[in-house]
Amino acid sequence: MGASLLTAFALMLIIEGILPFVAPAAWRETFLRLATMADGQIRFVGLTSMLIGVALLFIFH
Question: What is the model's pTM?
Answer without folding.
Answer: 0.69
